[in-house]
Design a protein that fits this description.
Elements: H1 5-30, H2 37-42, H3 73-84, H4 104-109, H5 126-131, H6 148-159
Helix pairs in contact: 3-6
């Protein structure tokens, strides 16, 4: 029995072709369940032995880098009182309406009309109602009324707790 090289070559080529087709079909049928080389190197594979993925830290909300400073009685409110209210014959030692505005403690004590302010309730405090004109008599009774910014300072200061700061 003599083998023909050409015949042997064609048989081997046929076997190789069939095995190549079967291998491709097997890989295609099974899907890509393995990791690619880049996944293996980067650790991004879907390996069942991988530990649970790490949950990223929650994103922190940015804080206001420059929060609005609190209104100060000493720096903001008292200068207004001194210039417009605690003048000779109004709310100084004579204390019109029983309200002496020469100090924080006197202001806090109120006058004949009751408490001048209720901490944390600026809009409904008597002093605000008098200086914005919503409850007569409007203050100050002489001279120009307080401007909107000054009135807002009183509201903010009272809403912030009306501290002696």
């Amino acid at each position: 029995m003599r083998f023909n090289i050409k015949c042997l070559y064609s048989v081997l080529l046929t076997i190789f072709s069939i095995s190549l087709i079967l291998t491709a079909g097997f890989i295609t049928g099974c899907g890509d369940e393995g990791e690619s080389a880049s996944e293996m190197m980067n650790g991004n594979g879907d390996d069942m032995t991988d530990p649970d993925p790490v949950t990223p830290d929650p994103v922190e909300q940015p804080t206001d880098p420059d929060p609005a400073p609190m209104v100060s009685f000493k720096d903001d409110i008292n200068p207004i009182l001194e210039q417009t209210c605690a003048l000779g014959g109004c709310h100084d030692a004579v204390a019109q309406g029983g309200l002496n505005l020469t100090s924080y403690d006197n202001f806090k004590n109120g006058g004949n009309g009751g408490a001048a302010f209720v901490a944390e309730d600026g809009e409904n405090s008597l002093v605000v109602k008098r200086i914005d004109g919503s409850q007569p008599p409007q203050m100050p009774p002489v001279g120009p009324p307080l401007n909107a910014d000054d009135i807002q300072l009183f509201i903010d200061w009272i809403d912030e707790g009306a501290e002696n700061n």
